[in-house]
Amino acid sequence: MDEIRPLRREELEAAFSLSEFAFQYTLSPEDRARGLQTARPERILGCFVDGRLAAKATVLPMRVYVHGELVPAGGVAGVATWPEYRRQGLVRQLLAEALRRMREAGQTLSLLHPFSVPFYRQFGWEVASEYKTYTLERPHYPAVPPSPGRMECADGDWQRLDAIYRAYARQYTLMLERDEEWWRERVFPRKCGRAAVYRDAAGRDQGYVLYRVRDRVLSCQEMVWLTEEARRGLWRFLMNHDSMADRMELRVTADDDQYLELPEPRVRQQVSPEVMARIVDLEGFLRQCRFAADTGESRLLLEVTDDFAPWNAGWYEIAWAPDGTASVRRAEEAVGTGDGPRLPSARCSIGDLTAMLLGYRRPRALHRTGRLEADEEAVRLLERRIPAGTTGIMDFF
User: Fold this and answer.
1) What tens digit of pLDDT does each residue of 206-216 get?
2) Is 127 a member of any domain?
3) Does 341 score more than 80 pLDDT?
4) In this structure, is residue 95 part of a structural domain?
């Protein structure tokens, strides 16, 4: 009989062995010992068959920016199954239990990095962010004039870096709120050979880069700036590595247009979908979400389909105040009664609604492709009320 529950500490060894097999890596004895000491088994859901760990999934508590406001979320990671138990519905059971627990914990949104987009789409997750990678060969390196500020080494100085990151991150929906543990356990080990900060002439930190140079390739995993002066200062700093690197790879948000500032803008660009997102608790998320202001009050009837988290399915009436504040109620009793004026109405899946409310897909585009069924008035209303912006995330989990 299958049993799904959080792991106990003595079961971490089995979870590590499953991860090593599924994701094809081997922990060193030192990393394994450290992991056994620092891992939090209560965050790992295990599916046990006849007492053996057959599949697992981790849910990481986090907060992410959504239109400038922090929203509680659950990051799904480390989903793995032993081959002899695959295609038996164990991951389906794990994800259903994970969603139930996230809802109980008040995590209204869920994120994951998919191994397969179609696989997670069937459970309601949808692509919600992408990133861009520039590849510059040495002939394309720009000559950048000096800036009035200076660059300073910031290796390991998470507080200094985080102050810049927070100011930058709130511009993008889905950026994570980072704490000391996240910086030390997730960011520095995975991204940072070196960290350097740009400080302006007034002594204010205005940007940073996380990068490494290996085999004559400079890989910049994070380039964050708060002013144009800082952006130029960061570029000049990276170009000062030209004697060490014949190629530079720079990872940026999908809306980045820095290539237009290069002397030769025809550099290689690759845009890749990255994170999938899913609304866990629609009523809670709608109350947390910040909508755009409009000239007056407005109301919408919205029907949502969600086969995997049935508590979300059904009709909702959303009412917006002029300042964008939203109230929401279940609307089954109001649909089809014929009482009062007819409201604009729309219908879509939980996945498409997630992408739309986060700002990754616009209502007009979803309506054009048939993924949003709505009358014209509803489409116009959603276009006005859902803030324009860009999704982006720098973290892998």
Assistant:
1) 999 999 999 99
2) no
3) no
4) yes
Three-state SS for 330? strand
Locate the DSSP E strands across 126-255: 126-127, 130-137, 150-153, 172-173, 194-199, 205-214, 217-225, 247-253
The residue type of 268 is R
Q: Does residue 93 sit within a domain?
A: yes
CA 135 to chain centre: 23
Q: Are 269 and 132 in contact (CB under 8 A)?
A: yes
Specify if 21 maps to a domain.
Answer: yes
321, two tokens: 């105040």
End-to-end CA distance of the chain: 31
Distance CA 320, CA 201 (A): 45
What integer is the mean pLDDT of 351-368?
98
> Over the stretch 131-177, which tens digit does the pLDDT of each residue have?
999 999 999 999 999 999 999 999 999 999 999 999 999 999 999 99
Say whether both 32 and 87 belong to one domain: yes
| Total number of domains in the chain | 3
The DSSP annotation for 340-359 comes to: SSPPPEEEEEHHHHHHHHHT
137: number of Cβ within 10 Å: 12
Residues 290 and 250 in one domain: no
Model confidence pLDDT, tens digit, residues 285-308: 999 999 999 999 999 999 999 999
Q: What is this structure's pTM?
A: 0.93
Average pLDDT over residues 280-285: 98
Domain that holds residue 337: 281-385
Which residue carries 């004039």 as its tokens? 145
Share of the chain above pLDDT 70, in %: 97
Do 199 and 299 lie in a common domain?
A: no
Instruction: Verify that 91 and 193 share a domain, yes or no.
Output: no
Q: Which spans in the chain are helix H? A: 12-23, 29-38, 90-104, 117-121, 158-169, 180-182, 188-191, 228-239, 282-288, 350-358, 363-368, 376-385
As a whole number of angstroms, the distance between CA 156 and CA 128 comes to 31
Both tokens of 115, joined, read 């191994």
285 with 197, same domain: the answer is no
Domain end point (choices 224, 244, 273): 273
Note whether 213 and 240 are within 8 A (CB). Answer: no
Output the domain CATH number for residue 209.
3.40.630.30
